């Protein structure tokens, strides 16, 4: 059989286009290569942008306005068994682009068609352990203004099953909640048959764990919360809020007779109203607290006449070596001492939900109306709906070096199951506080 030089060249080019002998295969639309257990991972609830620039962003629809070749779209899922992980990408293209997917250091490149929404099979990877997986999608070259709009990463194979963890859909706005990450709590075991007027706690954020978007809440109670935040690269706050008894997310909807009343506040403390997650009275002090330092929190809850309870928050910073008042609020339709004492850790900025953070809680005490200090040495570890829906598994809590701790976000593998009870060793040294000397 005679083969011309042109024919031979055509055969060689065809083989290269099909990826023979190359790990960087040029893939076509091939949904059939997936196995029957294929699952769709929406970009809108499971991905973050690395090294990105404006106007690139993650929306509910996925990655849009993707123009820069240095940008990495990183999508997370957690598999609970070993095996093969097959991956494809669904995107809308306005021109031909060359893209790549990297998992565990193995990179496979593929080409997109010139237009329309299509699914592009990329390849398969070996999962040698049950763990979180990051799937990095990157642009290499493009013929249009953008690399395309990415809707989902799709997976199948023997590593995938019904327990594979990711945010499944946006019902109840879970793309937002899922990207914020799971919130975790410590619910302290309280002494029986005691009226608790004061709650004392010590909070330390280890160095490197003070991530933007974190609320490290120390003194939570049935009607509010008190702790510290990282609000931006240049701003941190000590935050104390009390919910109104009127159930609403809109503070303007609260009737006057059910509004939280501010009685007094400390120097430089802002007071006002808050909404969106319940509504009520809010106060905060902009304070540049430091990771690695231990801060003390003291909360009073005291019922008064006419069905009101006064809640007052005090903060002690080692840099100042003194107690300062944050605020004192009066809550209507309430006559109770402190109940449901707890701490929690949450992230309130979805864009930092891929970064881990940790908080340490030590030396918890309550002071009763009978004048007794009682140490709290037991806490139950719980999580919010994001954790319980099996949408995120990067959460932990328990005992660390004798202290209670909470940890969330960052897609770490050694999660701690919810609803366990932990006990720390008693310190047996009550706080040295003269209540009458407090500001």
- For the record, the count of structural domains works out to 2
Q: pLDDT under 50 segments (min length 5)?
A: 1-31
| Rg measurement, Å | 27 Å
**Outline type:** elongated
Number of beta strands: 29
Task: Report mean pLDDT, rounded to a whole number.
Answer: 92
Residues in helices, as a percent range: under 10%
In DSSP terms, counting alpha (H) and pi (I) runs of 4 or more, how many helices?
Answer: 4
Largest sheet properties: 9 strands, antiparallel
Q: What is the terminal-to-terminal distance?
A: 100 Å
Q: Beta-sheet strand percentage?
A: over 45%
**Structural category:** mainly beta
Strand adjacency order, main sheet: 18-19-16-15-14-23-12-26-29
In short:
The chain contains four helices and 29 strands.
Describe the 3D structure.
With 439 residues, the chain is mostly beta strands. The chain folds into two domains: 23-166, Jelly Rolls (Sandwich), CATH 2.60.120; 181-437, no CATH class. The protein is 7% helix and 47% strand. It is built from four helices and 29 strands. The strands form five sheets. Strands 18-19-16-15-14-23-12-26-29 form a nine-stranded antiparallel beta sheet. Strands 13, 17, 20, 21, 22, 24, 25, 27 and 28 form a nine-stranded antiparallel beta sheet that branches. The chain has a five-stranded antiparallel beta sheet with strand order 2-5-10-7-8. Strand 27 and strand 28 (403-408) form a beta hairpin. The longest helix has 14 residues, at 5-18. It is elongated.
